[in-house]
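For reproducibility, we list the full input for the zinc ion complex.
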Amino acid sequence: MNVSPDNNPSSGATGSDRGAPLIVACPRCRKRGPWLEGRWKPFCSERCSLIDLGHWFDGNYRISEPLRPDHFAEFEELGDGVDPDQPDDALD
Ligand SMILES: [Zn+2]
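The corresponding predicted structure, in tokenized form, follows.
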């Protein structure tokens, strides 16, 4: 058994998990940035997020019940980089 001592990394440099964030386009204004990392994901800002909500209330999107905070809770559980617009059938 000859284990090379060189096999032992001296520093904690292990890849780059937190490297460059994924750059995506804001669904509303198309500005590109690391929006999935941010508070208003997938939007670039609160403003774009609210504009999209406005579309909901305008009836562009039909929902069966009023929006409540717990409707948004499920989006909080999605990991970073998960696109809530992606259909679930990819999991099959
Ligand atoms: Zn935007």
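The radius of gyration is 20 Å. The pocket of zinc ion is lined by residues 26, 28-29, 31, 43-45, 48 (CB under 6 Å). Both points were considered when choosing residues for closer inspection.
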